[in-house]
Design goal:
The complex is a heterodimer of chains A (about 500) and B (about 500). Chain A has about 500 residues and is of the alpha+beta class. Chain A has three domains: about 5-310, no CATH class; about 320-430, no CATH class; about 435-495, Orthogonal Bundle (Arc Repressor Mutant, subunit A), CATH 1.10.10. Chain A has helices spanning about 5-10, 65-75, 180-200, 240-260, 305-310, 320-330, 335-340, 345-355, 360-375, 390-400, 405-415, 420-430, 435-450, 450-460, 465-475, 485-495, and strands at about 15-25, 80, 85-90, 100-105, 110-120, 120-135, 140-145, 155-160, 165-170, 210-220, 230-235, 265-270, 275-285, 295. Classes of the chains: A alpha+beta (about 500), B alpha/beta (about 500). The interface between A and B is large, with 30 and 45 residues.
Amino acid sequence: MTVLPYEEALAVYDPVLGLEVHVELNTTSKMFCGCSTAFGAEPNTQVCAVCLGLPGSLPVVNAKAVESAIRIGLALNCTIAEWCRFSRKNYFYPDMPKNYQISQYDEPIAYDGWTDVVLDGESYRIGIERAHMEEDTGKSLHVGGATGRIHGADYSLLDYNRSGVPLIEIVTKPIEGTGAKAPEVARAYVAMLRDLLRALGVSDVRMEQGSLRCDANVSLRPIGTSTLGTRTETKNVNSLRSVERALRYEITRQAAVLAGGGRVIQETRHWHEDSGITTAGRSKETAEDYRYFPEPDLVPIAPSREWVEQLRATLPEPPAAKLQRVSAEWGFSELEMRDVVSAGAVNAIEATVAAGASPQSARKWWLTEVARRANEAGVDLEDVGISPQQVAEVQALVENRTINDKLARQVFEGVIAGEGSPAEVVAARRLAIVSDEGALAAAVNEAINANPDIVDKIKSGKVQAAGALIGSVMKQMRGQADAARVRELILEKIG
Amino acid sequence: MTLQQGAAAEIIRLTAVDLATKIKSRELSAVEATRTHLDRIADVDGEIHAFLYVDGERALASAGRVDAKIAAGEMVGPLAGVPLALKDILTYTGAPTTCGSKILEGWLPPYDATVTRRLLDHDIVILGKTNLDEFAMGSSTENSAFGPTRNPWDSDRIPGGSGGGSAAAVAAFEAPLAIGTDTGGSIRQPAAVTGTVGVKPTYGGSSRYGLVALASSLDQPGPCARTVLDAALLHQVIAGHDPCDSTSIDQPVPDVVGAARSADVAGMKVGVVSELGGEGYAPGVEQRFNEAVELLASLGAEIIEVSCPHFVYALPAYYLILPAECSSNLAKFDGMRFGLRVGDDGVASAEQVMAATREAGFGAEVKRRIIIGTYALSSGYYDAYYGQAQKVRTLISRDFDKAFADVDVLVSPSTPITAFKIGEKVDDPLAMYMNDLCTIPSNLAGNASASFPVGLAPEDGLPVGLQVMAPPLADDRLYRVGAALEAALESAWGGSLLDRLPDLGAVR
């Protein structure tokens, strides 16, 4: 596949984005029946006549899901419909038990909103076209064949546990004028949305489990023109990093097509995380006709204005406003703040600070010890296995000199391994700094006696040579000493 | 005729009310009542073919439980121990639900329809499942994949449809009660052509949960019986709000039993719909209808001519809305999860198996409507067909609203003609569709509607039905009119219409 170098592409073309984010709500029961929505159960154990689409069964709307949809709409500054309906989206696919999906079509519950995304200190206003309710499909597992897709598979397994899980689809208006930053703006938007949805408490927003899924649309037009180009829709973009990478790739690919005099085909494309490219899927020019019509098994939804206002009162602080506030409160530099945002650590740091740690120490631990482990495990910071309260507790142990920074890393390791609270890990692993002055003095004496040449250097004024002696003492003490105190003792002895 | 045969003949001719009274007073056991009806089915259903599945053992067992409850002095429902025939489009755990289609071959529903649940909770004994046009699409039961039901009045003729099995079972004294479902007349038209009572409650009045959907916005389960009071008692049992059906109405059930007992039409304003009559209506149908209207006048009703100008568009609108919904509702029958699967040779794709299954499993009428509905919903055609039909639907509702501002009920013949011969219209879908001309407006508007027997057409000696239509949630008015007519007609005839039913072979 030919691509144009990114800078060259952006010198000629102006990308226009459109993002469709599917959010699985964290309601206890499904959108139209009482089955559990818990993730990871044995296949086909969380199903009933309704979510299996058995003949004669009928859907009943989950009021909690409507409430979540309205709160999401309000948080995205949308208008909440006074009256709206569900529609049926008709197409045949084995993981969809009724062969139609109950969705919303021309009457979404929330529409015409906006949200602000901050990137590198600059704010971008993203228009929200709509947020609508629908039900998730089941999951297909295609066995055999090269692609893991239905085509060419030997057989397919179907799990309907996910069938009927409530989804909210949030669709942006075309995002224009972001230029070369388009992929980063897209990523920042999805990250902001994730934080917002988490703050709303309406979803687990775990991209790796599919509870937040993004379809990224992009089209190119020559810089200075206003007609929208032909877009592609890239699916299977399952991490924040992928959002940015997939769009960056798709921009360079489309630019190469256009620069070569070709025509971008309107189609669905699949993102391949490993190879970093997109490949053509279903062509949208011969798109299926979904034959939408109002769902006759359900009655219209007419949320009262009183209810909407009650829900508005439950909204959390908007993410952009929150960033401004915490950045000022914490006194971070712009660069520090940018790292915090891109690591998705704002909420974790906020909670850690609330638990008593200083902002700088909270930032340090989340962006080093926890972030490293999150990267290794391929999970979000929140899912590493240590809570903000525990991080604050580790920091408190450092500050009261029970442990030092180096020992703290072992404490992180222990807590994450499930060995207990930081204090319990310190006790069980015997990590506490030795405060027995006698033992310390003996180790200092031994180091001095064993290294006469270094002692001479110190005596001749090269005080920095004390580092080697400190290292020797720390080694003897298996790291469990307060380095500052060791230094004091050495200089005292030699001095 | 032996004494025993005489007793059996008497039992099957009892009304549901009388059966329930005898069972409750332990003059007759529910088991005996059930066994007598099962025997009757064994005797005559070879000819009538009202049943697709007879659930004899379970029926006798549940009858035994009713007897035990009564013996123990426990509270039982008003129709306790009365046998009933269930249209085979409502689920009943443990009995096959076929919907008259090959595509559901082998499917045993794992849950009870709400209507079924209510019948069982009220100690009614379910004898089995009755024949119907495939997925309730038809007016003759000739579209059943399992062969037609025959009209007890003349076995060369159709019993109406789609619920021909339920109506024929009641008319042939195989069951005193049956459940039907009415989408465009599937309870009322069979009632009319078999000389029985059939009621389509207000849309949302009885639950659709467990009723395999044909057209969700039109389908409605309702009672089939030989008398108006029996129908009212059954109506009372099955109706009422169901949280499992979002379209079910959360309002008290109208006092249909009280209305059937009152049978009083004095001072009632009865509108005769001028558009439902004239050309295309059999002379005997019009004659019996007009006589019945005169009878209502003589009972003190005020008769008013009413025009509902948009009713003439009801049939075309219906044949866009119904196929549209049905094309979507029937999409789930694809061989993937239940029922028939064709062409799964390990090589064919899922899509090919779906196509082969639907090709083999659906009959011609079902395919015809799926194709029409798919077309009507297609982008570019939606506004012209489905959208336009919905507007007509609104206009028809307004015709009703206007009419009901002036009258309490509307009346018309239930069907333009009496029962036609089996095979007569199978090749002419449009002629078949004309049977539902009078019944469709109430489905489109969602109001309450019923058919009551008003005699036999002089030219062919076949039953004629009169349709009564009432505003939504005024189902009780249907029963007032029906019961008044029934009382007056039976006193004129010296018995019920079904007394004149030809003998269906020897009763044991």
